[in-house]
Amino acid sequence: MTRPIGNRPPTAKEWRLNLYLSEHDPDTTARVVLDTGDNVLEACAEAHRSPSDPDVPEIGEELAAGRALIALGRELLRAANDDIEAVGASETTSPAPLWEPRE
Question: Which of 9, 40, 44, 46 is 20 to 30 A removed from 99 (C-alpha atoms)?
Answer without folding.
Answer: 40
